[in-house]
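Hi W.,

Here's what went into the run:
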Amino acid sequence: MTQANGKKVEQISEVTVMFAGDSGDGMQLTGTQFSDTTAIVGNDLSTLPDYPAEIRAPAGTLYGVSGFQLHFSSKDVHTPGDSPDVLVAMNPAALKVNLKNLKPSAVIIVNSDAFDPKNLKTARYESNPLEDDTLTGHKVFQVPITSLTSNALKDTNLSTKEVQRSKNFFALGLMYWLFNRPLEPTLKWIESKFSKTPQFIDANTKALKSGYYFGEQTELFTTRYTVEPAELPKGIYRNVSGNEAIALGFVAASELCGLPLFLGSYPITPASEILHFLSGYKNFGVKTFQAEDEIAGIASAVGASFGGSLAITTTSGPGMALKTEAMGLAVMTELPLVIINIQRGGPSTGLPTKTEQADLFQAIFGRNGEAPIPVLAASTPSDCFYMSIEAAKIALKYMTPVILLSDGYIANGSEPWRVPRVSELPTFKKEFFTDAETFQPYMRDENLSRPWAVPGTPGLEHRIGGLEKAHITGNVSYDPDNHDFMVRMRANKVKKIQQDLPNLEIDGDKEGELLVLGWGGTFGAITEAVDLARNNGLNVSQAHLKYLNPLPQNTEQVLRGFKKILIPELNLGQLARVLRGEFLIDFESFTKIKGLPFKSSEVYNKISELLGGSNGK
Amino acid sequence: MANNENIEIKKLTAKDFATDQDVRWCPGCGDYSILAQVQRSFPDIGVPKEKITWISGIGCSSRFPYYMNTYGMHGIHGRAAAIATGLKIARPDLSVWVATGDGDMLSIGGNHFIHTCRKNVDLKILLFNNRIYGLTKGQYSPTSEKGKVTKSTPYGSVDYPFNPVTLALGAEATFVARTIDREPKHMQEMIKRAAEHKGTAFIEIFQNCNIFNDGAFSLLTEKDTKEDHLLYLEHGKPMVFGKEKNKGIKIEGFTPIIIDLNDGEHTVDDVIVHDEFDHSAARTFMLAHLSDNPEMPTPIGIFRQILKPTYNEGIDEQIKRITEKKGKGDLEKVLFSGNTWEVN
Ligand code: SF4
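Here's what came out:
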């Protein structure tokens, strides 16, 4: 198809775009705007922001590069894409950092103004990559974004520095033209965002439009692309990141169970956003406590739980380590509590802004004594919403702390989410115990759950604590037989949760040569890899664990149906070891621990290697 | 929660606050007196017992909740203030009390202590200060005097102790008091005053551990020495002490000195008058430091009581204000907020 102005329009089914620049260049905002507009156009998509640990690294440096990757398609999308087809590089460092990851013959749009000797030197380029053969094989478009933006804004009264801040909108406008996206959603956003500073509405609008018209008019670009809407289930959609979904999930859980929400938390990457979001929901009665440290974060939540709140605490690996003792207290006092761990690269401070799944052992086993805690793991950004509700439900029904695992990848990544109506969500109203006649602090119901009698209830005054409890009365007990009994009781209680868990579902044949079994945030990459394998004629089944402790009832049965089971994990094989210990089944453990998510091609290659090139039949 | 406001409450007695649990402190331990004084004063604080919650950490002192027939939680080492803070934020209707010791609150729990004071969380904190680790069998504590010989410091400790009162004042606690296990009436008064206070109320209680640190406070408790070493702080009264009530504290420049009221040169008019509500930190600190000077008497009583909004009130007021402004949260509206689009 050719347009009136002589430009070709090419229809493609999927694209991966990377926006990259200095951490001060506004790439996260540009990427988010592009994603929102792309979602509105009806594509399925998945995003991955990648930002440096430093807040404002020195300009132009390699370690100061901030990127936002976005994969959109007219088909189902499960990952932010293995390698970009299109790179927008705002400076030499952004080009250098991303170049090695690009697809062959990718489109590279560079801000050519930024390729001056100083920036080249800071990016450790010995010669200008735009002039030598560094970029051979790629389609390179040199656009003087800085000067074009200045030109477009020369009639405004803004300082040079302020004008420069608009250049990401120029780049965004150009990308909107290239991919045939409307400007309106971003124009609307600019208006509401800068409503208090009209000069910036004007500047950013001009920059955005200039970028768009530049694409239209310049002879540089001869082709533009369209990506048709994807076929998604009907409904109202929004983009949601994993952290936002967790915040919404607990606001919802609080409404569904009829208890006020309390969050005790200490800021930590990449979990702080949940604290930020929940602090904004004051009109839901949400109480957030930014504690003096991680321990106070969970300890305050234990206190709030004792008082009858739906209490949660949010953190990441190092914070989990600090919260360990208080988790044991919640186990012993049998109080409901949800501990949310947004996993990041470890050990110690590790890689704070990178993703990893290496806290599974810590979640299942990492406490002194026999201290069983149910462990759940969300698989995608929007799944974080539903798993938060699940975690709350289990905590309240079984009077137990619950650990919910997410990771940096799904926490920061986003995807379109078909928003549920409240009526589609489960209700699980929780009643406090009030009958003084029959009350015993450690009596149990049919689920082995103890009664929750909150302070303020006359006649039910009682004491709990971290010392071993006597069965029924809850008095302190050092009796050996009682201890043995109570340890087993707590273990059985957690085991009992199995009765409520959905079966582990198999996507594909129920028996066969190969099952790919994953857990947590690797769902997208595994799903894409399995899809690709099937398209290539391989017979492979997939299952994904969202409940790690206890495991779904049919887990062993599912596993026994396959000759080989591949477990890809972003750790050194923790799930594989857990399952081996549990079922004495052997697994093919496929591990990667680079602070990065799996590429679907990596998982695919492993699948085809295991099937020895045959189709597994 | 049940609304008890209109219900006539039968006056409770000390016995109503006792539990059926055997009290397991060593015979002769100062903790017994603290328990007795709390049980004796609680019928007067005007709070129904189901609305009272005791939170503790770990240590001899922290067994306290088991012996009080109220709600209670024996927590983990050092974290009582943090647990109590969460409870108070979640349940501002409760009267939340913390029982803790010098190791629990000033060593492992030091961070929670200063931040609780700073935030002015409405908690009542009773610090049982015996200047030793009891439950772990006799190591020196952060309030032990320098040179203390214990199992862990056979050649004497080389570090300097905290003065809990100056620490609490420095962390901006709004009610700071001190009392002694052997002063039952005084302790009861302090407890009742703390109960009335809105905000972080801190009481340091000198408590004798007769097993590992016997006599740590004997100068202040024994008949023949007590009066020359104890200074009772009473609001509006001059700071006079001594067997003959013949000594007073005078301030010269920034320095407190002891004057002899019978020397013909000084009269009681030279003695400073205690003002519990004094906002100026300088004078209160000066008072708090008296006990660090062996020449000076040790003050007991209320060092400071000031009023400012509490942390938990702040949270509640914000919730109220934002709810009035935005309207009560509507879950479905929030779920469907932001940039949404429809797929048909
Ligand atoms: S060890 Fe000391 S403080 Fe502990 S109970 Fe015995 S006497 Fe009291």
